[in-house]
Amino acid sequence: MNDILQSIAQSSSIALITHINPDGDAIGSTIALMHALDKMEKSVDVYCQDNIPSMFDFLDGVNRITKPDQSTKNYDLVIALDCSDPDRMGTCAPIMDRAITSANIDHHVSNTFYANINVVDEEASATGEIIYKLVTQLEIEPNKSIAEALYTAIVSDTGRFSFSNTTSKTHRIVAHLIEWGADVVKLSNLLFNNHSLEWVRLLGQAINSLAIYYDGKVAIMHITQAMMDRVGATEEHSNGIIQYAKDITGVELAALLREVNDSTIKVSLRSQSIIDVSLLAQEFGGGGHKRAAGCTINLPLIQAQESLMKAINSYFKE
Ligand code: 5GP
Ligand code: MN
Prior knowledge:
single chain, alpha/beta, Diaminopimelate Epimerase, Chain A, domain 1, 2 domains, six-stranded parallel β-sheet, 12 helices, 12 strands, binds guanosine-5'-monophosphate, binds manganese (II) ion
């Protein structure tokens, strides 16, 4: 933590980068750090390869996240947030390559320690927990914008404080965020009780695709491009759908395969309590956490599913 504090103090231009297909933790932790650095009067730019899902439009400052496009800017310090390896930055990676100093703030077990400064805490439920700690050590007064961004990060990555990564520390941090001004009722309604019609319709399509294997221990769903077209959905609408497969009584392992194009499949993996899905994802070049991980398989849907089933078989065969 001291290295990153020192590097921030010595830098005047700072870029923040978060991961492709950004989720609540990626967006919330990045925006919180952006506001903190603003308060220190740093020059801050924020990058993400992909669009920010519209459900996060309410976050103060979310419109400052831009795509890297042709950016040729150079920074004293470039910080990647919630990115376990450089590939997770997608087209933002060259911005880090040009940095005088690079830093990596993350909580994934699969983190590859790819930067000059690596602040990696696998015990943290969310990158937002690490940013909380950082914010308390910077000489700034926290405000509501920081509190709501960090609450969004932590409530998202803990599944509303229900996943196994939730600790007493998580709750102590969140108590402070509420004291800093986070409006829990407003945030819960915006984040969880606020599904677009496209999302609900896509959920219906995905549930129709549900297949069960190994005596009910494995649940697999898929989303094809045709299914998304049918209901007018985009990739952001697939977030949260896998939970419905994982939550089936008796299921230990759930997978959702989403067709990105004819030969690219994005796989989400979840486990209930035994299988370390970050290891399963790593077999396909992905990563993540024990209970939530992902990877991309460069094959058509049917072959990708066969390939995944072969890997899953080694966990369930007698
Ligand atoms: P999701 O299934 O929600 O997209 O991702 C679950 C978890 O796995 C997240 O923590 C995410 O960062 C990680 N993850 C998802 N896809 C990939 C991937 O392709 N590579 C790596 N390293 N991590 C991934
Ligand atoms: Mn995260």
